[in-house]
Amino acid sequence: MSKQSQPEMPNEPCCTPLVREPLTADWAGDLARMFKALGDPVRLQLLSRVASHAGGEACVCDLSVGLDLTQPTISHHLKVLRESGLLECERRGTWVYYWVVASALAQLSAVLGSNEVNADQLNTAQLGTAARAVLA
């Protein structure tokens, strides 16, 4: 009997769920709600502000700084992010604090992400200036 060891197989699947198998109707619906919520630049910016805020949570008063929007408009966008499952919140006194739902971001990442994607595989001519700068 040979004592050669078998090569270890990676625990991760070879490709993303999107290309490995068809999405179920329920999962596609959940993902579509999240992607639709992120399709608005203000909501994407708010999600980024919450995610990058010290401590991983941000008060609504911190989120409005630097945005040329009224408080009701910001609240509407935060509500859409909450309803899509990307943010959670809690009222503390008169302020509401928001944090990112990590499992929701993991779902979005898992369905689109790939360990094999690199800048050469992307058509950078179709990307915006900021995206090209990140890939450079």
Describe this structure in words.
The protein has 136 residues and is mainly α. It has one domain: Arc Repressor Mutant, subunit A (Orthogonal Bundle). It has 7 helices and 3 strands; from the N terminus they run H-H-H-E-H-H-E-E-H-H. It has helices spanning 17-20, 25-38, 41-52, 60-63, 71-83, 102-112, 129-135; strands at residues 57-59, 87-92, 95-100. It has a 3-stranded antiparallel sheet. The radius of gyration is 19 Å and the shape is elongated. The termini are far apart.
In short:
With about 140 residues, this protein is mainly alpha-helical.
Kindly list the characteristics that best describe this protein:
mainly alpha, Arc Repressor Mutant, subunit A, disordered C terminus
- Major sheet: arrangement of strands: 1-3-2
Q: Which descriptor suits the 3D outline?
A: elongated
Say what the CATH topology is.
Arc Repressor Mutant, subunit A
CATH level 1 name: Mainly Alpha
Low-confidence stretches: 1-10, 117-127, 129-136
| Contiguous helical run count | 7
In CATH terms, the superfamily is Winged helix-like DNA-binding domain superfamily/Winged helix DNA-binding domain
Question: Can you tell me the number of structural domains?
Answer: 1
Topology:
Layout: H1 17-20, H2 25-38, H3 41-52, E1 57-59, H4 60-63, H5 71-83, E2 87-92, E3 95-100, H6 102-112, H7 129-135
Antiparallel strand pairs: 1-3, 2-3
Helix pairs in contact: 3-5
